[in-house]
Amino acid sequence: DARLGFDASREGGLAGGPTRLVGYAAQGTHSCIKRALDVLGVGADALRIVPVTDAFTMDVPALHAMVAEDRRRGLTPWLLVATAGSVNVGAIDDLDALADVAEAQGLWMHVDGAFGAAAVLSDEVRPRLRGMGRASSLAFDFHKWLHVNYDCGCVLVRDGDTHLRAFSDRASSLAGGGGGRHSADYLAGNARGLAANAPWPVDLGIELSRGFRALKVWSHLLEHGTRALGAAITANLRHAEHLAALVDKAPTLTRLAPLSLQIVVFRYEPAGLLGGGGGGGGGVAADGAALDALNDEIVVELQERGVAVPSTTRIRGVLAIRINLTNHRTRFEDLDLLVEQLCKIGGELAERRGWA
Fold it and tell me: What is the per-residue DSSP string for 151-196?
C-alpha cells in the first residue's frame, strides 16, 4: 500500500499500480514468503530468487544486478526479504549490506527472523544481527526458539503510521470522531466507553477477532527473563557444535552446509557405495535418487522408533537430514544417541539394499 499509495492501492487494488511489482529473496527462503505474495495478489512469480554464497547467504552483487535488470525492463522493485536464520541451514544474511541496498533502491526490507531473530538474546550472535534494527518490518515466532506454547508469532513494523493506514478502516475515527474509510458502523470509535482507546488490534492486522496471545508471552518473560532465554539459546549453539563434530567424525555421514546457528544438515552415505562416506575402492555405484530414498527412510525410522524427530530438506539438490536444535531440554547425550542410532539404522537399511 505504501509503495502504490494508500488510496490507490486499498481502493483500486494492484490494478491501480503503475507497473508490476517485484520482490527479492535468497534461494532457500521459507515458502511462506512466496505464499504471502500470492495472497497479496502480487503473484508468486513476482518473487525473484537471488543466488546464495557458499555460506548460503544472499549474494549481494547478484541482487544489485537483478534489481538493475528489472528496472531496465520497466518493472518496479518493491520488496527485499532478508533472512535471520534460514529454514534450511540457519544462515544469517549480511543484514547491514542488504539494508544499504534497500535504502539506496527504495525497497521495503522485511526480515524473516522466524527463529533466528531470538538469537539477539545471545551475546555470541547479537553482533551478527545488528542490521536487523534497520528493517522496515521483522517477523519472528515466540513459539520457536523462545519456547512459548504454539502458536505465537509476532510482526514488528518500523513506521506506526504506515502500519495503521495499511489495515485500519477507521482511520478518521481513531480520535473518537466517527466515519472511517468505509464508515464501519459497528466498529466506529468513540471518545468514551468500550469503543474508546484507539487503535484497536483490528486496526493493525487482518484479524477481526483474535486470541490474547500476548498474555502467554508476558507471563513467559516474567517467569524466565531474557537472560535465561538467551542462555538457553547459547546452550543450543553448543549442542549444534557437538552434533556437527559427531557428524564430521562418523565415516558414513557427510555434512552438507557450514554451521551457522543451531541447524545441522547432513546425509548418510553407506561405505559400500562408490563415492559414499566410506571412501573405499569397492562397492556399487552411488545412485542419487536411491541415496535420497535411503536417507528419507532413516528419518522415518528414527521417528517411528521413538529415537528423535529430525526432518528432511534439500541442500543443493540432494536430500539432507536436518536437525534443528531449539529445545531447552536437549542434552549432549541425546545427540550422542541420535548419531549412534542413525548410523545403526542406516547400516541396517543399506544392508537390505546390498550396499553394506
Answer: --EEEEES-HHHHHHHH-S-GGGTTS----TT--GGG---SSGGG-
Tell me if 129 sits within 8 A of 140, measured CB to CB.
Answer: no
- Give the CA dihedral 125, 127, 129, 134, nearest 10 degrees: 160
Number of H helices, E strands in the chain: 8, 12
Predicted TM-score (pTM) of the model is 0.87
Residue pLDDT, tens place only, 316-347: 999 999 999 999 999 999 999 999 999 999 99
- Phi then psi dihedrals of residue 75, to 5 deg: -90, 170
Q: pLDDT per residue over 179-206, tens digit each?
A: 345 545 666 777 888 878 888 888 889 8
Eight-class DSSP state of 119:
G
Q: pLDDT for 223-259, tens place per residue?
A: 999 999 999 999 999 999 999 999 999 999 999 999 9
Nearest to 24 by CA among 59, 48, 60: 48
Residues pairing with 24 in the sheet: 48, 80
pLDDT per residue as tens digits for the range 87-123: 999 999 999 999 999 999 999 999 999 999 999 999 9
d(CA 10, CA 185): 19
Distance between CA atoms of residues 327 and 307, nearest Å: 15
> Among 288, 284, 355, which residue's Cα sits nearest to residue 318?
288
- With b for 16 or more beta-carbon neighbours within 10 A and e for fewer, the 141-166 pattern comes to bbbbbbbbeeebebeebeeeeebbbb
Neighbours of 218 (CB within 10 A): 11
204: its cell numbers? 493493525
